[in-house]
Amino acid sequence: MPITKSAKKAFRQSKKRNVQNTKRKETYKKLVTRYRKLVVGKKIEDAQKMLPDIYQALDKAAKTNVIAKNKAARTKSRIAKLTAKK
Q1: 31-45 burial string, b = 16+ CB within 10 Å, else e?
Q2: Is residue 1 over pLDDT 90?
């Protein structure tokens, strides 16, 4: 456990940030999973309606350094390709 005052504060901050980062990561992962299920289920219109939400979640995760910018871009590209194929 941290001993100094600054280490205690850093520990509190890291716990809080970990919760936020985990929530952001889970959010975009759940959205992408639901999107892929819709595409496999041939519900392309419903899937396309989800795209702005997915893009927003990915951009937010990249902006806050939860994931890398290129990972966000790569993921957006791949999910956009899925609907283009169908």
Answers
A1: bbeebeebbeeeeee
A2: no
